[in-house]
């Protein structure tokens, strides 16, 4: 119960991060290089997924955003590129409720010949 209250209050845990820690704060404290990595981030068109995509792209990670709403994904990409024009963001249309759509995405991603280092 005490741990739950500490979490809800945003008090940092053993990792040094709490529920109020932002993706930017974690990335700023990271000593490991992130450039040259590739991340697929599902749910990146809003909320914590969008913030994670923004921060990882800013840190040099190649970000792949599979999205059902490609227009919303394009708006996110444009916003991130306006903040940092050197980012590499790729968009793919996908409907996670359709196995055929998931297979199409996988085929398209594999055809790029890129490593997959991070899957969120």
From TrEMBL:
It comes from the Eukaryota. Pfam families: adh_short. InterPro entries: NAD(P)-bd_dom_sf, SDR_fam, TIC32. This is Short-chain dehydrogenase TIC 32, chloroplastic-like protein.
